[in-house]
Amino acid sequence: MASTEDKIKEALSRVIDPELQRNLVELGMVREIRVEGEKVRIKLALTFSGCPLKEQIVTQAKEAALTVAGVKEVEIETTEMTDEERKRIGLGGDKQGVAEPFNLIHRSLAVLSGKGGVGKSLVSALLGLAFRETGQRVGLLDADITGPSIPKIFGLKERPKTGPLGLIPVESRKGIKIMSINLLLPEEDEAVIWRGPLISAAIKQFWGDVFWGELDWLIIDLPPGTSDASLTVMQTLPTCGIVLVSTPQDLAEMVVRKAAKMALKMKAPLLGLVENMSYFVCPDSGRAYEIFGPSRGEEMAARLGVPFLGRLPLNPKIASLSDAGEIEKLPLDDFLPLARRLAEKFVD
Questions:
Q1: What distances in angstroms separate CA 259 from CA 238, 240, 265, 342, one per listed residue?
Q2: What DSSP designation does 15 have?
Q3: What sign for the dihedral angle of Cα 162, 168, 171, 175?
Q4: Average pLDDT, the chain
Q5: Taking a C-beta distance cutoff of 8 angstroms, is the pair 161, 168 a contact?
Q6: Which residues have CB under 8 Å from 303's CB, separation 6+?
Q7: Which residues contact 260 (CB under 8 A, 6 or more apart)?
Q8: Residue 143 forms beta bridges with which residues?
Q9: How far apart are CA 56 and CA 47, in angstroms?
């Protein structure tokens, strides 16, 4: 006859990790089961201590254990997997890429929103250009594996070369080093149909197997959402901070708040918020119109407890230059003050 411990373990085998799509027992997450009368104590090893799915996993494990006859109370303690355990289930560990020991990156930041269409790639590109304008060495890592747009914005089609220390980023006209999956595809409109683990592996390679050399800034353009790519960047890349991007609409604000909460759960510093498409300046009258409604940027930043970095206008010239791959021709008058405020947050 099966013991209570065995029955609980069987119940836990029906709980599926929502990210890895495998059960807790198969993944080796069940470290210990102790039965003390009607009370059960369970120790679970999460893939990472800051896992944003922790509460969901714990709740489902507790509910599963309570289905076992005689169990009235369940207490769950969580710990973190070792690097070896992560490797065993295909998440890798802290092994360095071939180029990583030779890269010297002084500051890195990720541009995040949670919602598509708010201009994360544009803000990433303009941040890079603003820092480059002041003579700093800049790299752009396009972490949007399934929807990359950085090469198109900069008009890049050259494939990265391979050197003795790894892949060599393609340089823009102004000398920004850029790495994107689109630079490695046979055609720029080739679809990348990958599951999460492959996307995560590609981002790790763009960090560790690309010879960036010495950079003052590495800017990471994240895709929409709060799943695989964003998790990988926050869990495995030494990111110095997060820049949030929003627009004035209520919907954008709601989704950006989700992204901010994710960053806080992952203990990634929030450096500030940028409100994009905040207003439109009529070329005939010079009058500013808030097409998408009144600006909410300052209020939102205050609610999140982060600095408000500034508002960016809705500028038709940006769209035409981006489509033509000539974003580097855009005057940076609206963006240089924002970049300066961001740079002031770093103390060398």
A1: 18, 16, 10, 19
A2: P
A3: negative
A4: 84
A5: yes
A6: 257
A7: 244, 270, 304, 306
A8: none
A9: 14
> Minimal CA–CA distance to 265: which of 226, 229, 228?
226
Lowest mean pLDDT among 11-15, 75-79, 307-311: 307-311
pLDDT tens, position by position, 5-17: 999 999 999 999 8
Q: Which is it for the CA torsion 151, 154, 157, 160, positive or negative?
A: negative
Nearest to 18, CA basis, from 296, 232, 264, 227: 227
Q: DSSP string spanning 189-237? A: T------HHHHHHHHHHHHHSB---EESEEEEEPPSSSSHHHHHHHHHS
Closest C-alpha among 266, 263, 206, 235 to residue 93: 235
Which tens digit of pLDDT belongs to each residue from 148-194? 889 999 999 898 988 877 889 999 999 999 999 889 887 777 776 67
Single-letter residue type at 165: L
Q: What is the pLDDT of residues 220-257, one digit of tens each?
A: 998 876 666 777 777 777 767 889 988 887 777 777 78
Confidence of residue 265 (pLDDT cuts 50, 70, 90): confident
May I ask the CATH architecture of the domain 4-88?
A: 2-Layer Sandwich (3.30)
Q: 3-state secondary structure string, 135-155?
A: CCCEEEEECCCCCCCHHHHHC
- Ramachandran bin of 92, using left for φ above 0, alpha for ψ from -120 to 50, beta for the remaining angles: left
pLDDT at 171: 96
Q: Are strands 241-246 and 108-112 parallel, antiparallel or unpaired?
A: parallel
Please count the residues of the chain.
Answer: 348
Can you give the residue ranges of every domain in the chain? 4-88, 101-343
SS3 assignment, position 334: coil
Can you say whether the dihedral through the CA atoms of 322, 328, 332, 336 is positive or negative? positive
Q: Cα separation of 305 and 272, whole Å?
A: 9
| Tokens standing for residue 99 | 């180029």
Report the alpha-carbon distance of residue 135 to residue 172 in Å, rounded.
14
Nearest to 266 by CA among 4, 75, 48: 48
Collapsed DSSP state (helix, strand, coil) of residue 26: coil
**Which CATH code of 3.40.50.300, 3.30.70.940, 2.30.30.100, 3.40.50.720 fits the domain covering 101-343?**
3.40.50.300
